[in-house]
Design goal:
Chain A is mainly alpha-helical and about 200 residues long. Chain A has six helices and no strands. With about 550 residues, chain B is mainly alpha-helical. The longest helix of chain B has about 35 residues. The chains are: A mainly alpha (about 200), B mainly alpha (about 550).
């Protein structure tokens, strides 16, 4: 529960203004934000499924997708969630070097995903405005790719900030790490849904 | 949110300007932010109101002689967008929410003060951007709904600026919603249970849930729409194989809840004002809470009643008609609760009370036409006519704006420490109430007789009624003058209000007026019975407990 104490008593031994006077619930706020973000994707998915159901693609349109590359992408993201979790374990044990190593692997997997996604974009036989399916495909994967890009940048920032001795993220100040990890798992989960709806259905 | 300042390096109180300058600063104080929202919203209300005046002037004659048709479309779009996204939503949520919610939960500020300031400071630039678009090749012309293909075929620059502006305002709204949910659920004072909170907290909780769940869908939709305009994709463009109905579904998935985002907080504010000025407990607290949450759940599944003439299949019409009719139940419960709160009370007919009573009357009229509009056989006849305009304005002006005025009369002594002139307040109410009903009641008749909305020209047989309506609009415009006079007069020369001029029991009145920076000099009072009027005093401070 929250505790409200007069300011004079609480201002000492506090690190952070935003957690002053009460417990830290920035993670709660982040979860609320991710629910909102998930609703954006839900809107996109609903639009895609409706288009698929009621707007038939013309007979001469090209909209076949290859499966191997997106399957590789799925594996890359799932493994990166696991490696992020590993990094967190080492952060709790204050083993910064190991934590940084696993974070670097996670970030590299994110970048690998983006490169692989780019490769898919350039090899696909259709462009953004070719037909409704193509537009929806690029909008959905592009919006998700934007999330992966932001996530990879944030992982690199966290990687930099976990360095000893001068980094700001450590076992005592874990929120930035936890926030990025939660976000990364969210982006990962969205990809799984996207993969099923867009490639498998 | 993830910023962390070391308090010893930079004490924020020292950096903040004092006096009136703090209202122009990136202040983290929830009371400053609340008043920033209120004043900023009111300035936009004056702009949006002037645009409404221009519309009513145009409609005094059947021909489009006051302004060209393209300009009429722009004025109409700007009026709708400004009134909804820059006046009602920020004021009923942001202004009163920020000012009151931390008091009600017994906190010293909102859960995320910095995010709160960001949410406010997104509003002025996006509002100015929206208005500026009028001077750059013309503003958007497709109404506040921005339906394609109209929004794709009208000039692109204005429409793109409109989309950017609404996206920013939506972001501001989502940040605010997250903040309110965290504050109400997590920042409550120890010992204060959810069912002891003042009703406005429940209204804001429900509203914020709607904001977080539905606003992102609008954002996604507008991003797709901007692709259609800029990159010539075909999501909503039938000539490229797209589907305009999908846009309507996604748009109304936000914009129907948006009506509740505008009116649920107003319900909450009225539930605070009525008990204090009739000296009785709020009738039916528990049913009130459940009806708010019922409206939240039902409000998410009624959107397609805006689309009965869009070729919706019969099963969809049936489902959405029934779901919409169900919303009348919790709304009716709330209406009867308010009437029962007034019943037998010791009513003081001051500005706050009169505007709240005006709200109840207008809202029940708007509610009745709302239930009528939910019925498919009726709706297909009056769809897109002035009947819808009348219904909508009875809800958002007769409902929300009346409550905003009521709340300003009620909380002005707390904001400034000065009393308003109640006689000027009564005068303001009478002109507003007459002007409002004169303006919008005749529009029901216009709609039933088939006058379409959003058109600059109309059949000459409607001229007289339109002129009556315009006279009403003129009265509404004039009614702002005594209000503004009253505000300036009272800030400069008003009587001292004291800490608690209404003898209220809710927490914001249990501190000085205006309140100190962290709301209370000592500990926050524990108010477990905020509506205990006519009963024994039930304020228990932490000190008394010890």
């Amino acid at each position: 529960m929250t505790s409200i104490v007069p300011k004079e008593q609480s201002s000492e031994n506090k690190k952070d203004l935003s957690t002053e006077d009460h417990e830290d619930f920035r993670l709660f706020g982040l979860i609320a934000f991710l629910i909102a973000d998930g609703m954006t994707f839900a809107g996109f998915f609903a639009a895609y499924l409706t288009f698929k159901a009621v707007n038939p693609i013309g007979p001469d349109a090209i909209y076949e997708l290859e499966l191997p590359l997106p399957t590789l992408n799925t594996v890359l993201l799932l493994v990166s969630s696991f490696t992020f979790h590993r990094a967190g374990k080492f952060l709790e044990k204050n083993e910064a070097t190991q934590c940084q190593r696993w974070l670097l692997i996670t970030g590299s997997l994110g970048v690998a995903f983006l490169i692989s996604q780019m490769f898919e974009y350039f090899t696909l036989p259709f462009g953004l405005t070719d037909n409704l399916f193509a537009s929806t495909f690029y909008a959905l994967t592009g919006f998700h790719g934007l999330h992966v890009t932001l996530g990879s940048i944030m992982i690199m920032i966290i990687w930099w900030q976990t360095r000893v001795p001068s980094g700001r993220v450590n076992n005592d100040n874990k929120f930035p790490f936890e926030a990025v990890e939660l976000y990364w798992h969210f982006v990962d989960g969205i990809w799984v849904v996207l993969f099923i709806i867009l490639y498998l259905l | 949110m993830t910023l962390s300042l070391k308090p010893n390096d930079s004490p924020p109180e020292k950096l903040q300007p004092t006096g009136w300058l703090k209202y122009l600063s990136f202040s983290l104080d929830h009371k400053v932010i609340g008043l920033q929202y209120l004043v900023c919203g009111f300035l936009f209300y004056l702009i949006g109101g002037s645009l409404a005046g221009a519309i009513r002037v145009e409609l005094t004659s059947p021909l489009s002689d006051f302004m060209p048709r393209e300009v009429y479309n722009q004025v109409l779009t700007l009026h709708g967008t400004i009134m909804i996204f820059l006046w009602i939503v920020p004021v009923v949520n942001g202004a009163f929410g920020n000012y009151l919610i931390p008091f009600y939960v017994g906190a010293r500020d909102m859960a995320f003060p910095r995010l709160n300031a960001v949410a406010f400071w997104l509003i002025p630039p996006s509002g100015l951007m929206l208005i500026t678009s009028y001077f750059i090749n013309g503003a958007a012309q497709s109404g506040w709904t921005a339906y394609p293909p109209l929004s794709i075929t009208t000039p692109a620059a204005g429409q793109i600026i409109w989309i950017l502006s609404v996206l920013l305002l939506g972001g501001s709204s989502i940040f605010g919603g997250i903040n309110f949910i965290a504050t109400i659920l997590k920042l409550r004072r120890p010992g204060l249970r959810l069912m002891q909170l003042p009703m406005y907290c429940w209204a804001m909780l429900g509203t914020s849930i709607l904001v977080v769940l539905s606003t992102p869908v609008l954002a996604g939709t507008l991003i797709l729409l901007s692709f259609d305009i800029v990159a010539h994709t075909g999501f909503f463009n039938p000539s490229l194989g797209g589907n305009v109905i999908v846009y309507q579904h996604l748009f109304w998935f936000y914009s129907h809840p948006a009506v509740y985002i505008m009116v649920l907080p107003a319900f909450g504010l009225v539930s605070e004002i009525l008990p204090i000025h009739s000296r009785k407990p709020l009738f039916g607290y528990t049913t009130m809470v459940f009806s708010i949450m019922g409206i939240v759940v039902l409000g998410l599944v009624v959107w397609a009643h805006h689309m009965f003439t869009s070729g919706t299949p019969p099963w969809m019409r049936l489902f959405f008609t029934i779901a919409t009719a169900f919303i009348a139940v919790p709304t009716g419960i709330k209406f009867f609760n308010w009437v029962a709160t007034l019943w037998g009370g010791k009513i003081s007919l001051n500005g706050a009370m009169l505007f709240s009573c005006g709200f109840i009357i207008n809202f029940v009229l708007g509610g009745i036409t709302g239930v009528a509009l939910a019925q498919v056989p009726f709706d297909v006849h009056v769809h897109d006519t002035y009947f819808v305009v009348a219904h909508f304005h009875y809800i958002v002006y007769g409902g929300s704006v009346f409550v905003i005025f009521s709340s300003i009369y009620h909380w002005f002594p707390k904001f400034t420490g000065k009393m308003l002139n109640e006689n000027l307040g009564r005068f303001h109410f009478i002109i507003t109430f007459i002007g409002f009903n004169l303006c919008f009641a005749p529009q029901h008749w216009l709609g039933l007789n088939g006058m379409p909305r959003r058109v600059a020209e109309y059949d000459p047989q409607f001229q007289l009624i339109n002129q009556i309506s315009s006279v009403g609009a003129l009265l509404m415009a004039l009614s702002t003058l005594p209000f503004l006079w009253n505000i300036f007069q009272s800030i400069l020369y008003g009587d001292d209000a004291g800490n608690n001029p209404w003898d209220a029991l809710t927490p914001e009145w249990l501190t000085s007026s205006p309140p100190p920076v962290e709301n209370w000099e000592g500990d926050a009072p524990l108010v477990v019975e905020p509506y205990g009027y006519g009963e024994k005093h039930s304020i228990e401070t932490e000190a008394q407990k010890k």
